[in-house]
Amino acid sequence: MSTSPSIPVNPDVLRWAREESGYPTERVAVRLNVNEERVRAWEKGERQPTERQLEELAKFLRRPLGIFFLSQPPRLAPLGAEYRRLPGVTPGRESPELRIALRQMLTRRETALGLMEELGEKVEPFSLRAHLRESAAEVAARLRLAMGVDVATQLAWPNEWRAWAAWRSAAESLGLFVFLFPSVALDEVRGLAILRDPFPVVAINSKEMPEARAFTLFHELVHVLLAAGNEELPAIREQRPARAWDAVERFAESVASYVLIPEQALREALGSGVVARSWNLPEVRSLARRFRVTPLAMATRLRESGHMTWTKYSAWRHRWDEFVATLRPRRGGFATPVEKAVNRAGRPFATLILEALAANRITSVDAARFLNLKFEHFEKLGDRLREDALGAGLGE
Amino acid sequence: MKTRLVPAWASDRILAAIYSVDSSSLMDWQARHFPVDIFVGLADRMDDLVRSARLVAPAMVREELDKVGTAGLKRWTDQHADIFVPVSRTA
């Protein structure tokens, strides 16, 4: 039992903070080790939390302590007004983990734009567009041209990690942020797009394996392009019936697969014996490895271009699902704190933070908080970013 | 002739002042601009302030430094835990 004094706070603010984070009273009660009735009493103004409890609540809800001393709840735009329509996610009913991830990424973007302005960097509007009347191959070709990635370079990447890093960097060069978000179940969201301009955000679930990340990246990027072309709206305003929305999703999938596997490159890889192929698992896996994509993405792509019939695709998909079910859960590799920070926020954001720190626009504590990285790792972070920049300059 | 940097009345106030610092002050001092193994005199003066109960910080500063600070700063905050006071006492 806590002996610290009770703190007078506005009960409406307490309720707002909990609801905004997506937690039921029960979860708060468990986390603070109090009866659920106690939490309800706080929110009705019948009792007051202690200082210790308020501090714990601030930590749990990832809010600054000061927010509880506001005279009334702040008015924030609903999160559903920020991200694209997501399959299976109802705006306002996102999981607490997804809500935290969205809030963190929105804050990161705002921070970046503020710092870019302070440092005198020119911020251009996002200029790429896509329209549903276009062919997937056409949009994909435009995207690849804008990113400047040719097929020979892609086929020379030595592994899926290098491929992911290169695709990410190429996408970032278009004037958007690519973030990874942790702690959200893959079942809920694999990737999402924050439809803002300038610097929209494409975000990938960090649980996604590297060869699948690139596909998700381009799938989300297509949604950004469609929104820029006034073809889709943020989740809360997107009212298409399910079937019409499915067509949008299929378009995004199709473009993503054409970006990763252009038609000409696929034909060359297949050679002349297309019809004779049986498309067993090893054949598709081998072809997928060549392009550093998942076998499923490759099979989908083969079907899209008519190299695999729907019947063969369905049979292949069945065998693939059976095979995947036999695999052990994938274990995460070891990443240093610096690698984790750069993976999460991306190189452009990390570089911006170091520049702002060097220019005394932010404090060392700000910098560490923005990157969620202890300050003692900042020297290594600087070294890492310089090495990456040098590698990019040498065309690695 | 010896000149005074501050007038006597100001000097008295400075000697009586209590400094309430945030995380950035401690980080910039130790982790960024004035490492304690090089700026030994400054570290001694800070210790003097702590001994005379003239350096305080909200308890949350310690938590923040644990999260974002350096190992050296963590050692220093552990050794000077008395400077951190609960928010209700600083308010």
TrEMBL record, chain B:
InterPro entries: UCP008505. Pfam families: DUF4411. It comes from the Bacteria. This is DUF4411 family protein. It comes from Eiseniibacteriota bacterium. The lineage of its organism: Bacteria, Candidatus Eiseniibacteriota.
